[in-house]
Design a protein that fits this description.
CATH superfamily of one domain: YVTN repeat-like/Quinoprotein amine dehydrogenase
CATH architecture of one domain: 7 Propeller
CATH topology of one domain: Methylamine Dehydrogenase, Chain H
Helix content: under 10%
Structural class: mainly beta
Number of helices: 4
Length: 1028
Amino acid sequence: MFSKLLCTDVLAIRCIDNLIFVGVGCSLYIFNVNTYKLEKKINCLYPYNIHGIIEGPDNKLTVFGANYFCTYKIYYEQETLIIKEDLNKKELNDWIITVKWLLYDGHNYLCVLLAHNNVCIYDIFNECYQNTWCEEKCILYAGFILNNDKNLIIFSGTVYQEILIWEVNYAIETSPVLHRLQGHNGVIFSVMYDPIAQFICSTSDDRTIRLWKINNSKSKNWKNIDIKLVRTMFGHTARVWKSIIKNNIIITIGEDSLMCTWSLEGKLLNKICAHHGAAIWSIDVSNDNKIIFTGGADGAVHAWPFVNDYIQKTVLVPKTNAYTLPKYVCYLNSGNLLIFYENGTLFIFNRYYNNVEESLYLEKYSTYCIMEVSLCHSHICFASRDGYIRIYKEIKVATNKKLLQILEEKIMESQILSVQWLENNKLVICGMNGILKIFNFTVEGSFTIQSVCVLPYSRERWLTAAILYEGLLICGDRAGNMHIFDLKTYVPCSETNKKPIQTINKVHGKIGIQNFIVVNSKLISAGRDGMLRFYELNKHKNTKLLYILHKQKMPMDWISGHLKSFDDILILGFKEVEFVIYSMIHHRILMKIPCGGGHRSWDCILKNNLIMFLYIRNKQVYASDFSLTSFTLPVLLNGFHTKEISCINPISKINQNNIFISGSEDGTLRISYISNPLLNNNIHTFQTLNIFDGHISSVKFIACLNLQFIFLCNKYLIFSGGGRAQIKVWEIDIKDNETFLHNKDISCHDITCHMLYGFDQRRKKQLHESNHSYNMQPETRYMDIGIYYCTTNFYYIILFVACADGFIRVFLYDINTKSISLKISSKCVDRCITKITVITYNEKVIVLIMSTDGICRFIDFTDTISKIIEFSQIEKQQFENYKDIFITKFNLHQSGINSYDIKIIEKGKYLLATGGDDNLFNIIYFNVQLQNKKMEIHISLLSKWSTSTAHVAQITGIIFHDKNTIFTVGMDQQVIMYHYNYNNDILSVTILKRMFTFVTDIKGITSWYNSKNESVVCVYGKGFEILI
């Protein structure tokens, strides 16, 4: 088997000419900087990670990691990139910190700084080397080599919080320390020197960036150079890994997922959360200093513009209105600004010529006014206190743009509270008592009321958002409720009894719904809780109803709008005092603009690939423009979960795409697919189709149930659970796409959720009512799940959940009512139950549990399940004690059992493989049978095989495979393939193959078959790796 796809820490990035070199594991990816396309992929240092990539002379490239390095020659031949190995993998006796090429007397040498503060000068031609030591022998975490007129100056970042500067002396074996730079309060993680800016920049464990100035840099003797600390910069919230200086700008990356840009004066210019919370390991800048490339712990490589490409300036206000304040602002389709002042004056401002093109005084709207611009930004509607509306259209007169009034009518008998545009010529007006009037108009000035609806009673009874969706009027009110009206059933004659056909309460909390979006036939609502909630339209008894899907958390507090580009949806919102633009395709923040918050009027449009943002701040009007293309650079490598992956389950195989669902410590579920490689590159790729939020803590397990075999539909029930004693039920529908899968092909319904002690809000209320200040029962963690599908009632699914407090909690899920309830809490052991599985024999249901004491226990739950199904309507849960009621138990390990797999050989005969903290790998062969007239279950051990020498660390993943093979994987990052055989009551196992995986902190292993009927093995933990 060979590694075909790896997604893990990106530890090295280097830009050389028009190529980008990326190191992931031992693989070197080579991208074209102009097209962002993958040109080549080669394996360099197996089984070691690539930690650095250095450019050399004569088109040479050095790749190093651990204590190994190798060199390549790179050139083009008939427009084809050729990578040829120039020097095969060489081993040194210490860890390599950094490498520098040196030309001396016409020969090329490699200067290698090692981890114990010594330098190795390696002769490439003769393949020999010479060592030079610093007089202070200490451990280094960082270093930099400066070629100073054939002399090598070494900057050593030590674990003792200081930077040592020393010069390599070829004549002697030990060189003295020239300078000690002290000031950091932690380990030095990076140090670099910029000879142009004449600064030394260092980063540390103390979360600071320190800038040291070289005062008399003209001196070639570094012993006489004066070095002074001039800046200490704070901005990161965790360890700072690396810094670079380009164009007098400092760029730093850290463990907090932040990429910060600083001026040389120490001012923080910009801060970007670049990898969704995952640490950023590597960074480099393109040769033209226009694009920054970052690699993170999520396995992604992102491209960013080097500078903030937007211009912010104040729009000049006419002197006649110097004492009035702007109330509303918006953009017109021409790009002109529309500014409405509190005294009722309206200005059209030409930003290009910086002058006022037209001014109007709206006396009727001077004391109370609501202004809304149409979706096309060509029409503007004004609404008054006495129920009047006035609509203007922007027209061109000669060379200027003017506003033409096309309509003014009294449409309400009360004050107008809200105006929402549904189409370019259709609006919905909200008056007192929740009355809604939907009307359209023509440019000639005629209008027609099409429908009249009434919002249900609420405390704040007016519209905050509205949209037309598949013939329905979707309304969001100030109380946070969503109301759905069928416009075809209403006639414009009466204002009574116009009730919504459906109401969804408190969709985004109590504050209100701010925006609706329709994307790929799905409806999305957004509000001030920072959530996007997804819906689909279903027909129920000839009535159209909204079907609630899932929700997705946005990196902002208040979502207020959206923009649609050619292939992306941009979410607009606010986080504290910043305006935030988020890309749904790239899953990242594109821009943050300090604007003071979203409580004042603002507008944002996309015109000619230029995002234009207009807002009021400090009683002034500001406008900011920036190019969309510079901020939507493509992703070179797709990222995955930001923390350790706890579980991966294959779902389906559609049109040669292998689909799987994963859960992680980051609390999210992801549906992804791996596409088969194209014939020309033989490179597998993966794509995340959707990310589902909903867990408030880590996800420890996922179980999938295919409903196709039961209800003949292409849907899957997903059960996920983990931290905070939370279990969630999802329903996923995957549409069959003939070409490529997209996120629009996935529909996920967040069906229900169960928490053992209720949600936080409910728990606080219970504690308040009971006058307790704390809960006596601590929350447990759900560790694993076993599923039993009821044969007597197709709608019932029994869930056995293994818990960290030694309980098995039995849930009943009803497919028909979409409800989950806790039925039985069974105390089994006084240890954490790590794994659980369900075995059925005849009509018996046997639950096998594994715990941290290394014992496998078999428990008969047949009678318990019968009671649950018989009394399924009773809500009360029962407590049962199974501590001493076991069918049998096998003492297999000295400590906890981390992994297992079970295989049916024939009826009643099973193979069970387990792996534990004691490095022991067990395979047992046991028999299940019924004895005597009482049909009691008897389990007997037929054969056993074990070894503790295959792995040198905990075994965390086991899976049975075809042709009598089995795979194990452990924390030692070894994937071992075995062959097992059972003859004459003897179980024999032999090792067939060993492989090294670059996935760290391994949590498990799974497998499936691809479209070519090839076996696919997936190892997961801190990332994942596909072996075929």
